[in-house]
């Protein structure tokens, strides 16, 4: 299903309705997300901020199909994640959703090129074609010259750039970022911010970024605060 277009012509890449997640802790039910609603359009960057324990990681896991909601629905590019079985959901994530974590989760034994190409190889694409596409993305994030290097030979910022290339290699509809600058020094984080600005201008995917970093949040189109299991517009300076 194609994502619906909004009045400004931009497709809606992510929608959530009545999103609720309840965990059982001993004899009690703990509600982490409570009827949350969210809409993100193509090319839009949304930051989600909130205190530790407010449910930001839970929200990302639900948006990415890594966890199932207790109630409600998540739709990515018009597709309901709830309607997909586990195998179909795995295939959908591979095609439509990119992930960037604070700790890059690159495979130590693989080169930057091989790490960036991995989602396409998992999909069944031929290695030569997958690596050609991965090389294009490494060029885009300024890592083409380091393509043959393994993660242990790269700086923290370089590893994060490879992780961003890996997230984008499948041309996803949605990119989810969990503290992507949280493990970087200020100068390196600033370079990642500049890269994100460029990617937002040149790709049609939607970005949702969970962060404690005010500078990173301020670079996004919207800042939402997660509190009490719901999202509200944040107007903090």
Following the backbone from N to C, one meets helices and strands in this order, namely EEEHEEHEHHHEHEHEE
CA radius of gyration is 18 Å
CATH topology: Rossmann fold
Number of domains: 1
The CATH architecture designation is: 3-Layer(aba) Sandwich
Characterization of this structure:
This protein has helices at about 55-65, 85-95, 110-125, 125-140, 155-170, 185-200, 215-220, and strands at about 10-25, 30-40, 45-50, 70-75, 80, 95-100, 175-180, 205-210, 220-225, 230-235. The chain has one domain: P-loop containing nucleotide triphosphate hydrolases (Rossmann fold). The protein has seven helices and ten strands. The N and C termini lie far apart (about 40 Å). About 35% of the residues lie in helices and about 30% in strands. Helix 3 (about 110-125) crosses helix 4, helix 3 runs parallel beside helix 5 (about 155-170) and helix 4 packs across helix 5. The radius of gyration is 18 Å and the shape is globular. The strands form two sheets. It has a six-stranded mixed sheet with strand order 6-7-8-3-9-10. Strands 2-1-4-5 form a four-stranded antiparallel sheet, with helices on one face. It is α/β, with parallel strands linked by helices and about 240 residues long.
């Amino acid at each position: 299903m194609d994502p619906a277009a909004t009045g400004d012509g931009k497709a809606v890449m992510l929608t959530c309705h009545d999103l609720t997640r309840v965990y059982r802790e001993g004899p009690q039910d703990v509600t982490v997300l409570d009827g949350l609603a969210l809409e993100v359009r193509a090319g839009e960057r949304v930051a989600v901020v909130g205190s530790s324990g407010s449910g930001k990681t839970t929200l990302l896991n639900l948006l990415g199909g890594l966890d199932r909601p207790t109630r409600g629905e998540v739709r990515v590019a018009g597709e309901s994640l709830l309607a997909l079985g586990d195998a179909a959901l795995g295939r959908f994530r591979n095609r439509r959703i990119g992930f960037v974590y604070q700790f890059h989760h690159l495979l130590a034994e693989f080169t930057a090129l091989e790490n960036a190409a991995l989602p396409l190889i998992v999909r069944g694409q031929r290695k030569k074609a997958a690596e050609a596409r991965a090389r294009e993305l490494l060029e885009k994030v300024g890592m083409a010259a380091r393509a043959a290097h393994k993660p242990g030979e790269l700086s923290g910022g370089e590893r994060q750039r490879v992780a961003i290339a890996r997230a984008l290699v499948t041309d996803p509809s949605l990119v989810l970022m969990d503290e992507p600058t949280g493990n970087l020094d200020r100068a390196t984080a600033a370079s990642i911010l500049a890269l994100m600005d460029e990617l937002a201008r040149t790709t049609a995917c939607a970005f949702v970024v969970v962060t404690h970093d005010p500078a990173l949040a301020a670079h996004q189109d919207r800042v939402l605060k997660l509190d009490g299991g719901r999202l509200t517009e944040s107007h903090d300076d």
